[in-house]
From TrEMBL:
RNA-binding S4 domain boundaries: 4-65
Name of the molecule in the record: Pseudouridine synthase
Gene source species: Leptospira harrisiae
Enzyme superclass (EC): isomerase
Gene3D superfamilies with a match to the protein in the record: Alpha-L RNA-binding motif, Pseudouridine synthase I, catalytic domain, N-terminal subdomain, RNA-binding S4 domain
Family annotation (SMART domains): S4
EC number assigned by the record: 5.4.99.-
Example of a GO biological process term: enzyme-directed rRNA pseudouridine synthesis
Family under the similarity heading: Belongs to the pseudouridine synthase RsuA family.
Gene Ontology cellular component terms for the protein in this record: cytosol
InterPro entries: PsdUridine_s_RsuA/RluB/E/F_cat (IPR042092), PsdUridine_synth_cat_dom_sf (IPR020103), PsdUridine_synth_RsuA/RluA (IPR006145), PsdUridine_synth_RsuA/RluB/E/F (IPR000748), PsdUridine_synth_RsuA/RluB_CS (IPR018496), RsuA_PseudoU_synthase (IPR050343), S4_RNA-bd (IPR002942), S4_RNA-bd_sf (IPR036986)
Length: 243
């Protein structure tokens, strides 16, 4: 089983910079398996019990969080001018090297995944895997059966790119301005641009699902939480390269 330095473990858990946690280790504030350890270079495994102050750390190989993204921030780890999704994370989680998986444009709400797992993130963002995402959308004009057929054939965007076939449905025929969209690619502002090519405007857009993972309906805008073990299993269900 892999071993890591104690100061690195605490740093990766978001408990402070490497220099900060070294000081706390030297001060005797950390225990491993019930024993005070004052050596920052002491090696630990995932099976070792690490107690920081009085908190037993629930350590894992990788961490996974979901956010209900608010429509006032961009999907980036940092930006000199714009508020980013990282600004919604607590300082401790900002320090954990979490990063967002894929992008939602500034105005779009909904499911955004954060992780420290680069392999899984690559799977969900790589075009060759075609991971399906589901969206709820409100449109300026009534959506027609012809629009549904156009989505199925692929739509030529303003830059000349023809999208992959996508699915479009009208859940309630009495309200044809509210639709569900399923995509297997993620070009810049793609759903908005697809409807623009049809002469319509997306007035509201929210991502509801990525692969098998659904947005928790109880999460308020801008809120986030760690995924349950069952949700992590759902994330990896269609990712055979991840063990």
């Amino acid at each position: 089983m892999a071993k890591e330095r104690l100061d690195k473990v605490l740093g990766n858990f978001g408990l402070g910079s490497r220099s900060d946690v070294k000081k706390e280790i030297h001060q005797g504030l950390v225990k491993v398996n019930g024993v005070v350890i004052k050596d920052p270079g002491f090696k630990v495994t995932l099976t070792d019990e690490v107690i920081y102050y009085d908190e037993t750390l629930a350590r894992k190989d990788f961490y996974y969080f979901m956010m209900n993204k608010a429509p006032d921030c961009i999907t980036a780890t940092e930006d000199p001018r714009e508020k980013t999704v990282m600004d919604y994370l607590k300082e401790r989680h900002q320090n954990m090297s979490l990063f967002p998986v894929g992008r939602l444009d500034k105005e779009t709400e909904g499911l955004l995944l954060f992780t420290t797992d680069g392999t899984l993130a690559h799977y969900y963002t790589s075009p060759k895997h075609f991971v399906e995402k589901e969206y709820y959308a409100e449109i300026s004009d009534s959506v027609t059966n012809e629009d549904i057929l156009n989505f199925e054939k692929g739509i030529v965007l303003d830059d000349g790119y023809k999208t992959l076939p996508a699915k479009l449905a009208i859940p309630d025929p009495t309200n044809p301005t509210i639709v569900t969209v399923w995509l297997k690619e993620g070009k810049y502002r793609q759903i908005r641009r697809m409807f623009q090519s049809l002469g319509k405007e997306v007035t509201y857009l929210k991502r509801m699902k990525m692969g098998n993972l659904e947005l928790d309906p109880s999460l308020a805008l801008g809120s986030y939480r760690e995924l349950s073990e069952a949700e992590v299993a759902l994330l990896k269900e269609k990712t055979p390269v991840i063990q």
